Amino acid sequence: MNMKRRTALIIGALVSPVLAITLPAATAGAHGWVTSPASRQDQCAAGTVSCGQIKYEPQSVEGPQGLRSCSGGNAAFAELDDDSKPWRVTPIGSTYTFNWHHTARHATANWQYFVGDRLVAQFSGGGAQPAADVSHTVNFGTLTGRQKVLAVWNVADTTNAFYSCIDVNIGGTGGGGGGTGPGTCGVTAWDPARVYTGGDTVSYGGHTWRAKWWVTGDKPGTTGEWGVWEDLGACAV
Q1: CATH fold group of domain 32-170
Q2: What's the pLDDT score for residue 185?
Q3: What is the model's pTM?
């Protein structure tokens, strides 16, 4: 019996390192980012702008609370801090709705929106677990022109936060990288018979519209704030 026990222990000792090597490591939890208007990491993930590692994990821009950094202080995501890259600029009005997508729904202290060091808006999370998709309507007051908005999701059960930068033109029409000069629709007119998928853009009623998800037949401008069509603003004609 003793010989059998010793043999089993020896085999176990030999097998354990192999299992430690071959078993997959636990994957890190995913988190969240701003998907609309398209944040910098969202543009990276979509291939709109050429980026590094962040294109594979737009949800993971996590850092200590209190930063004013697009990268969350993460060196691997430093390209998000580079204002010279051709980030797509979304034309918006003085009031606009921002959408977060949470892939791990941490208990939330609040969401904050900054332009520079100015806190423009704050929304309480009440320490509760948020929905997978959360929207906030932000009023920019007297701010106009090209602005970089820093959206921050402050987690309640850790000292960390998640960061997203969004380039906008408040009260403007410039929609391209750099945001200089007036934009033009530059997209095909809406077709009621066509099937559109998330990310498709159309022109209708002098505005450019982007589909948030699959749609056909629904007219842009009639689906409301929470509807399928996102108004990207008026375009030059």
Answers
A1: Coagulation Factor XIII; Chain A, domain 1 (2.70.50)
A2: 61
A3: 0.64
